[in-house]
Amino acid sequence: MTDATITEPHEQGPILEERHPTYEEVWATPKGWRKLSSVSHRVVGKRFIVTGLIFFLIAGFLALLVRTQLIVPNNTFLDAETYNQVFTMHGTLMMFLFAIPILEGFAVYLLPLMLGARDMVFPRLGAFGYWCYLFGGIIVLSSFLFDAAPDGGWFMYTPLSTREYTEGLSADFWLIGVTFAEIASVTAAVEIIATILCTRAPGMSLTKMPIFGWYMLVTAFMIAIGFPPLIIGSLLLEAERVIGLPFFDPAMGGDPLLWQHLFWLFGHPEVYIIFLPAAGMVATMLPTFVRQPLFSYGFVVAAVVTMGFISFGLWAHHMFSTGLPTISLSLFSAASTVVTIPTGVQIFALIGTLALGRAQLKVPMLFILGFLFIFVMGGLTGVMLAAVPFNWQAHDSYFVVAHLHYVLIGGMVFPLIGAFYYWTPHFTGRMMSERLGKWAFWLMFSGFHITFFLMHITGLRGMPRRIATYPEGLGWDRLNMLSTLGSYIFAAGILIFMLDFIRHRWTGTPAGRDPWGAGTLEWLYPAVAPGHNFHAIPRVTSREPLWDDPRLLEAEAHEIDGSLRGAPRGRRETIGCHPVTGEPHQIIRLPHPTFIPLWAGVGVAVAAVALLAGAYLVAAAAAVATLVIFCIWAWEPSFTGETHNSGPDGVLPVNAVSRVSHTHVAIVGTLLIIGSLFASLCFAVLYLWNVWPSFTTTAGLADPIFAAAAAVLGLGLAVLCELGKARTNVLADMLCVLISLGAGAALLWSMQATDPLASALGATLTVTVVFVAIHCGILALWSAIMGARKLAGQVSAEQTLPELNRATYAKVTGAMLVIMALLLCAPQLGVLS
Amino acid sequence: MTGDDTAPDVSRLLRGIARPALVWTAHFIFVYAALSAACANRGFVTFGLVDIAIIVVTVPAVLAAGWSIFRPGGVELAVAARWTGIISVVAILFTAAPAVLMSSCG
Amino acid sequence: MIDEESTLGQFGSQSALDAAGLGAELTLTLTTALHVAGALIFLSVMGALAWAWFRTTGARTWWIWAGGVAIPAGALVILVVGSTLTLAAIRAGGENATIIDVRGYQFWWDVTYDPTGDPVRDGNEIFLPLGEPVTFRLTSEDVIHSFWIPSISGKMDMIPGRVNELTVTANELGRFRGQCAEFCGLSHPLMAFEVVVVTPEEFRAFVADLRNEARDPDTIALRQGRDVFMNAGCAACHAIRGEAEGGVLGPDLSRVGARASLGAGMWPMNVGNLAGWIADVQDMKPGANMPSYNHLTGPELRAVAHYLDSLK
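^ inputs. structure came back:
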């Protein structure tokens, strides 16, 4: 592909070169079973959406089973074991396999179209994430077939979820399956961050970015920081179940509350991770129906950013009744109430937008009004729950069940169904029915309130959550009966929506170009465009280009002027922009369809299943095979050093390597995840040290010489990689391999005296050390691949290389080594013992 | 590259948006860590010391977060920076209030 | 076997809205205030929404200022101050409280009166003195449970390895129902208990009476029942003062016949239910640590049930 002719400047305009396939051929989705190799964001996004919808229907069916069991007191429709499995799986599927993935699906589908990119910036990563999500979801769901469905609640509190109280595989299905599916969430987070920051249309500065971009940017950062605590918690719990490391065992200096902290450090931001994308869709749809831009864009950006931060400071309000000291209660009570402010700002920005013009009451708008009504109520009960004494009564009662469904169904499901009505024409080229949509809305809205409003009262009358049955005569009978009937009405609304969704494929009105008269770029092409996004990427001068730039809708979509017309080199390419200004500074080569992500997903799936089955050799073999697949993935030719004429934006380099390039942004995103994983482990260490001081000595002291040596090697590594950030030779690469391995080995060696089975603190320290050592190993592997590529002649002299990315990675690894050494040496220094 | 002139401006505004929230983060972590150090079993430091430390740290935190409120406006992201500053200052005050107003771990 | 119909109306109140204790009363006042304020705010926001929907006036930034920042911030200050004052009032006055230890087990409650003096055990039923503060010291011997008597006070978790304290003051005579509020396994819904509020004199008399040895079986039938109890190995887990001391893995049965309910606040206490319970525990309470004694013959079951029912 690197023939010399490519570097010749091209004329702007359609280029007919016989040697290369046409633009349409380059972007065509493979047919038949080969479609599995597609990595296009349209295909991957739709896969996420459809799979998420299926999990939603399954989880909804489970909810109906729950409600049916509770319709009368002393009911025997489900036995206690089945009931516990059903409510556990309802929560698990809804939170992990429906809400986050389906919203990420919408983001993956819509973002490139809104931002003016031809695809997500790492299509293979997105495809890999999807396979992880699908296989992880199937693993979790398959537990029903083995009669081992998890029954410990979606929150999996220890010690109930430890081997002593939950024998068999049910908890392992949950821990392994959910963690596997979470890979999809974190990979998508990195991909979304890099796509939003690096592939916007020329001229689309951050101030001109559609508001959905801001919402998703904040959400993606939140996923990167928020998911790691649960991933660490799940790994620790699985290690306790399988190996017996006593992280949560109070007899060994562990603490059941450590699990709760880790779980809610994830679990509370999770609620906002679900709410923000949905709110972003609302803020995108509502202006369309008012025909006015979103009121107070800057204010909303501020609200979204602060909400993203503040939502991390509230986790302990799920733990008000665990006996925290009063001052902690007050701290988290106050912090919890503050999040009302950014929420209120967003609500009032939407109300302000409505005042700008006369709104059309189409079905998506109806769902937005439903969202405002229900979510404001849920928000208010949320503020009530921040009041500690009230929380002591309402916590773990049906009041909380009511509250969380107001927030999640009001804040996410209603906007989502609205979004389906709004964007379905984009997926299929046909409109869904206004009439059926109204039926669906009113059934859902009334059913919802009958079901959940009454639950506030049920809860205050003392009914706890998660009970499979209840005795007669406690004042709950009639309320439960009505709630159950309401849930059937709600389900009927969902059913009508589903029928409409299926029906419209054949009999829906064909949608023309921009059927709602929206202002954002995803409506530039007529629905449905055949698998590709932009023949040429137009320059963007405002937030609603289709409203402000008449030339965009006057011309045929494929004739609009812009950068990078066609596919002159027969390659998938898109424009790479400066993260802040949106000015083009590179051409990003995108991968063509490939089966590599599928194989990598299968590799991880085999490893996960083998782990569940206790076939540890098979699991290890599958892990090695996956690693090999990743190496093959990384072994692609580099296109750096080429430059091409992009058209109006001049000659640009291909796949530039700089601090603002997409690969470096992705590395920073990945390091955020790694940093959060490491911080979660450090939190666990410090927590146990602080709460159970009497076990500190049992943990055993680390060898300070080796720990210090690891830190010094880590610093050396960071310096070496920083010095070679422009380019290293093979010798330097090999030196990096040796130092990385040496640092990891020294760190592991320093822990010789610690018996991880003897105390929770020792176990946690050991795991943290292993975690850091693994990163030394990754750095060694990376350097080895870099050296091997040079030896194999994969790189030429004029190319810029990813050494900069490695330097950033090495700095963080060095920092982790230093922090680890400080933690290990602190007792010797006499400071903390 | 027409954007080069505006690039520093816009990235300064972006920092203006992120800074108050980052200050809130640092302040929150400090308050949580300090209270945990004083009120858990180990009793690593005394509550009186923590109380003073939180007051001492809160003043510069409010100033640093509030700085964004007074930067020049004009572009719409400057509005965002101002509002992030206001919301963050309120959040910092709410975070510090319990520790400042209470006299023991309780 | 178990008469389902007879459960109707037998329980005391389990509603936070029927406040009969200091914590519940103060919280109910707070709850009412929160709901009134919440309803007003909700109506105002919906009013603003309706106004914006029907008018086309343009929008002003100060709306967001006011509705999104200023008013919420003011309301939140009031909320936090109000809830903190309520919290302080609930927590006040625990200095001279009577102490009662409660340990959670899957799926029952072990109660110890006077734990700091001369401890005496009972289970699944708690007596409280009217108008006097009582501090519960709560912990768990297996998984996490949560101790909740909605009519008396808010809940507090029982966590293995920790002791959490909860001070309550009951302000009304009568029977109330408490229930485990943290999901604790298979029979979580069947883990309740009864609370009996009596006068302080009656309370002290009750605790003194608890220390007495259980009544000796005075008929042949009851003695047979006691023999079944001993021969079947019940005493390995269950203690009966004066008869079989030492069993701690199950509820103390010294006054089991005097309790209003069986199976941790679930079924009315009578001979028939007792016999059914002993024969079919695993059906009635799946996952309980006690096996079903279905190998006992009918006469044996009746005898032991009569014996237990006589322990008052």
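Helices of chain B lie at 7-39, 47-66, 76-101. Chain B is about 75% helix and 0% strand.
thumbs up if we can close this ticket
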